[in-house]
């Protein structure tokens, strides 16, 4: 009795293909039994599904690579232990002390200068937009050594949010909340207003919208390529010989990520500033974004994948899911009619 009850419940939970089709598209005669070989003939749908299982390029974009162990014998293990002592007992305390002293000196100079020179920082003669692939929040720290960029960044809580509100806003940085759909329009308007003022600092945008593991590059958002100004591509490639600089924000806080970097031997990366690009005649903003992405991928040796990085944080739209279900239902019923 229990097995028959479970079978009945499963039958009730089974989706009905007719729910995804208009009434006039249903077959008039009762279809024959559907065999496995009939389903296998629905090649477009099953090919896409099998490809997603075998070659899951989306998940690989956000997967951290585990370091290969090298302390596998009695000769190398003592050296590994010595390295742990040096990295955690010497390098990490020295780096933490240097960071603390640097922050204290910075805050001591920042607030007086910020209030004394407020409104007197109009030094630039033109506005530019810099776009780069994104691996970690330290991308911004590395690129900020070139000039005072106004970065477009996700709002963060904690001490990172404090720095965003007190320091980074002084250079014209713009914050957004990816979970708020209405905030996208506000952010787009702020970007347009920013580029209208030639005295503002150049924009630094990570058009992927999320951190990728520096082996792949996902689709670029088109907002950075609709501003009507020069777009300067920047390619960033980290050398993983000492540490993997990818920040997996779904599994690790930025504080722990920073500790992991500071307890490594070093963080090594190459940065290439490529030729500024302009929107060509008859070219759409999407095609422009794809062309710049191709340049960055080629220079940094990254693999291009046709995925939206926001899928890392948000589930696909119900409309997209229902459309896939409708296409599959039509394919099944078409096969039944042929039989």
TrEMBL record:
Compartments it resides in: Membrane
Pathway(s) annotated for this protein in UniProt: Lipid metabolism
InterPro entries: LPCAT1-like, Plipid/glycerol_acylTrfase
TM region positions: 72-91, 97-117
CDD domains registered for this protein in UniProt: LPLAT_LPCAT1-like
GO cellular component terms listed in the entry, alphabetical order: membrane
GO molecular function: acyltransferase activity, transferring groups other than amino-acyl groups
Domain Phospholipid/glycerol acyltransferase: 128-239
SUPFAM superfamilies in the cross-refs: Glycerol-3-phosphate (1)-acyltransferase
GO biological process: phospholipid biosynthetic process
Keywords: Acyltransferase, Lipid biosynthesis, Lipid metabolism, Membrane, Phospholipid biosynthesis, Phospholipid metabolism, Transferase, Transmembrane, Transmembrane helix
Organism domain of life: Eukaryota
Residue runs in coiled coils: none
Matching Pfam families: Acyltransferase
Family: Belongs to the 1-acyl-sn-glycerol-3-phosphate acyltransferase family.
Designated name of the protein: Phospholipid/glycerol acyltransferase domain-containing protein
Species the sequence originates in: Urochloa decumbens
């Amino acid at each position: 009795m229990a097995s028959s009850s479970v079978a009945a419940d499963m039958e009730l939970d089974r989706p009905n293909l007719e729910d995804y089709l208009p009434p006039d598209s249903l077959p008039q005669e009762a279809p024959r039994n559907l065999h496995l070989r009939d389903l296998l003939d629905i090649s477009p749908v099953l090919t896409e599904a099998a490809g997603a299982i075998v070659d899951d390029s989306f998940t690989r974009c956000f997967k951290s690579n585990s370091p290969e162990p090298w302390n596998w014998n009695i000769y190398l293990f003592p050296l590994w232990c010595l390295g742990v002592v040096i990295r955690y007992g010497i390098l990490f305390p020295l780096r933490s002390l240097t960071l603390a002293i640097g922050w204290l000196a910075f805050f001591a100079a920042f607030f007086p200068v910020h209030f004394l020179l407020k409104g007197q920082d109009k030094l630039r003669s033109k506005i530019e937009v810099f776009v780069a692939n994104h691996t970690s929040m330290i991308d911004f720290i590395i690129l900020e050594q070139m000039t005072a960029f106004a970065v477009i960044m996700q709002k963060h809580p904690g001490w990172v949010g404090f720095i965003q509100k007190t320091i980074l806003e002084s250079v014209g940085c713009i914050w957004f909340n990816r979970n708020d759909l209405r905030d996208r329009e506000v952010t787009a308007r702020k970007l347009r207003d920013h580029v209208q003022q030639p005295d503002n600092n150049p924009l630094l945008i990570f058009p992927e919208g999320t951190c990728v593991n520096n082996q792949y590059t996902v689709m670029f958002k088109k907002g950075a390529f609709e501003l009507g100004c020069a777009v300067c591509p920047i390619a960033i490639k980290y050398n993983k010989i000492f540490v993997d600089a990818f920040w997996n924000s779904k599994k690790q806080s930025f504080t722990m990520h920073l500790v992991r970097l500071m307890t490594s031997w070093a963080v090594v990366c190459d940065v290439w500033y490529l030729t500024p690009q302009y929107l060509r005649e008859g070219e759409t903003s999407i095609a422009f974004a794809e062309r710049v992405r191709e340049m960055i991928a080629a220079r940094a040796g990254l693999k291009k994948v046709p995925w939206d990085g926001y899928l890392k944080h948000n589930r696909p739209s119900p409309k997209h899911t229902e459309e896939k279900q409708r296409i599959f239902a039509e394919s099944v019923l078409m096969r039944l009619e042929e039989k």
